[in-house]
Recover the amino acids of this structure.
């Protein structure tokens, strides 16, 4: 029973939400619950989840989804009926802080090193792509813009390099999102034969992301 696993204040907010008239959109709250619990998100909501994960990178001072699970559950309970919402909410189990296996020790050093390497690789790819644009008009502009945006997102990972321990539940989805975007950029550039000067650097970016994925899974 969920009520036994939460504080009286959270349980009270749930009771109040159930008793009140439905109001508000619970879409983001559901996504936050799924992110916190590492639960799968339905295919038709995956784009919204990836966007939210990228937005969370820039909200450094905001509570993490794992810290707001109770409030998010109350928002879901207070929201208007949506087919499938109950099933999704039920699948996003309460995160158990005591059950988290943090990344520490030598593994932490490896993650920090590869986060630093990722930043360097992406910055280098950005520089090469920018130089390749000189005199080439705007034919490759959209690819450069994607690389530029990726470079900005990667910088948001800097905060993890200063942590004494890293919660893999927080870092893993961010790395997954970046890896998916990096593969998409790589495939699009090669198919369009665009900015070939950056291909080798971008392959190194993908290799670093693959290493990070292995490290945060272990």
């Amino acid at each position: 029973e969920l009520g036994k696993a939460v504080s009286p204040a959270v349980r009270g907010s749930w009771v109040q939400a159930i008793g009140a008239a439905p109001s508000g959109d619970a879409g983001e709250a559901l996504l936050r619950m799924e992110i916190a619990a590492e639960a799968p998100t339905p295919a038709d909501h995956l784009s919204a989840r990836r966007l939210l994960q990228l937005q969370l990178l820039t909200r450094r001072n905001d509570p993490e989804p794992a810290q707001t699970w109770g409030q998010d559950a109350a928002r879901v309970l207070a929201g208007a009926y949506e087919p499938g919402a109950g099933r999704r909410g039920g699948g996003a189990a309460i995160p158990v802080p005591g059950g988290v296996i943090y990344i520490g020790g030598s593994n932490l050093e490896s993650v920090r090193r590869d986060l630093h390497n990722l930043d360097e690789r992406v910055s280098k790819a950005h520089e090469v792509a920018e130089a390749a644009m000189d005199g080439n008009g705007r034919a490759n502009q959209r690819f450069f813009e994607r690389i530029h945006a990726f470079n900005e997102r990667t910088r948001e990972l800097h905060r993890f390099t200063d942590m004494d321990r890293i919660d893999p539940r927080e870092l893993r989805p961010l790395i997954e999102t970046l890896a998916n975007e990096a593969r998409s950029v790589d495939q699009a550039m090669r198919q369009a034969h665009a900015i070939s000067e950056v291909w080798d650097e971008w392959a190194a970016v993908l290799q670093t992301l693959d290493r990070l994925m292995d490290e945060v899974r272990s």
User: Anything to note?
Assistant: The CA atoms of residues 37 and 94 lie 7 Å apart. The first helix runs from residue 8 to 19. The radius of gyration is 20 Å.
